[in-house]
Amino acid sequence: MSTTSLTLTRRAALTGLGAALALPAIRPAWAQGAPIKIGVLHSLSGTMAISETALRDTVLMMVEWANSKGGVLGRKLEAVVVDPASNWPLFAEKARELLQVHKVDVTFGCWTSVSRKSVLPVFEELKGLLFYPVQYEGEEESPNIFYTGAAPNQQAIPAVEYLMSKDGGEAKRIALLGTDYVYPRTTNRILRGFLNSKGITNADIMEEYTPFGHSDWQGIVARVKRFASEGKKTAIVSTINGDANVPFYRELGNQGIKAEDIPCVAFSVGEEELAGIDTKPLVGHLAAWNYFMSIKGAPNEEFVKLWQAYIKNPKRVTNDPMEATYTGFRMWMQAVQKAGTTAVPQVTPALIGQKLMAPCGYEEEMLPNHHLSKPVFIGEVQGDGQFNIVWKTPTAVKAENWSQFIPENANRKR
To answer: Where in the sequence is the signal peptide annotated (predicted)?
Structure first.
């Protein structure tokens, strides 16, 4: 897909959303000066398009919403969309294009950690600003990136603790299934250390990796069944990403793996991915996130209404990375207003301490380590593709981006 500058004007789609989201009665009068350019760096083709296209649309929605409010600092926002096409080196090229050619003020983008690792040196070299909205493995802290998804202590570890609890089935054996790249491998290294600390030995941990887009799950699912048949309660922890999830879940159903026998908790499957799957065989399987569409309360109701009005489809779902994108965008707007400029050196410190009552129903805060405090939820898949929340933290959890279960971090000041 070629680079496209998108000027968003569909204001009518946002009417009737209540006072908090209402449009001004007249078209806003823009201050003189060039538009504020918003980079959008998400895969619109390839294996990750199943997940990332909705994030592109979320950023476009927020640009439109901000413009309906009069923009930022009286200036209009303009989105610049590129397609890195699930090609990790191309992410770096497209990031450089956004910063050097289009001179964007801020970028929202990436899903996989390999794409984020690809663009990180570009943003640091060119002093850009990236908001990264997806859960990840931690072990990183960049002055040019704000991480609005979960760190391992805000998703992976609480999820495994739940599986080991009485309510979660008291699992004694864990099958770690992931896509073969940095996020699953590092997350599972952390989880192996955590499991070992809880008395689960390596003999009771199965670990398998598959390439992006993997489609033949018959053998791996059969091995999981054999692993689970050896006398101890077993659970699956999935860090499978992208469209490989569709045949994976289909194969779980084909081989009769039910949640009450071998529960599977996913870290990268939400409402958007389930929209393309027959969820009836998956009822009761789990996902761990910091947001679900089924959350009650005014902040989420406003977010869902905003999305469905923008996309002109009352059945389109929201999910966790979309909510993290929304939260990051709102915090960036607040920081720009505080700084009085879009200049990265001034906006970056202004972001620290920003707070927002997020759609998850909790107040989230941007911490000095460029990560958010976030609640943790465990949800069960329902027949309609939504999640019934079965467990949650009482308060937002502060992100620990350097895990105590990585030996090299033992002497790191956290």
So the answer is: 1-31
The mean pLDDT values, 10 residues at a time, for the chain of 414 residues are 40 40 48 87 96 97 97 97 98 98 98 97 98 97 98 97 96 98 97 98 98 97 97 96 90 92 94 84 93 98 98 96 98 98 98 98 98 98 95 97 94 71
Instruction: Specify the DSSP element, H or E, that contains 333.
Output: helix 320-339
Q: How many CB atoms lie within 10 A of CB 53?
A: 16
How far is 131 from 53, CA to CA, in rounded Å?
16
Residue with tokens 């207003």: 337
Closest to 151 measured CA to CA, from 324, 402, 351, 396: 402
Neighbours of 69 (CB within 10 A): 15
Find, among 267, 268, 218, the residue nearest to 242 by Cα.
Answer: 268
Q: Hey, CA dihedral for 398, 399, 405, 407, is it positive or negative? A: negative
Strands (E) across 189-344 are located at 205-210, 234-239, 264-266, 286-289
Residue written as token pair 């033949």: 216
pTM of this structure:
0.89
Dump the DSSP string for 350-402. HHTT-EEE-TTSSEEEB-TTSBB-B--EEEEE-TTS-EEEEEE-SSPBPP-SS
Report in angstroms the alpha-carbon separations of 217 from 104, 209, 407: 42, 11, 33
Classify residue 79 as left (phi > 0), alpha (psi -120 to 50) or beta. Answer: beta
> How many Å apart are CA 101 and CA 340, to the nearest integer?
24
| Residues β-bridged to residue 371 | 147
Residue type, 276: G
Three-state DSSP class for 206? strand
350: Cβ contacts below 8 Å, ≥ 6 apart: 335, 336, 338, 339
315 contacts 293 by C-beta, under 8 angstroms = no
Place of tokens 């799957």: 277
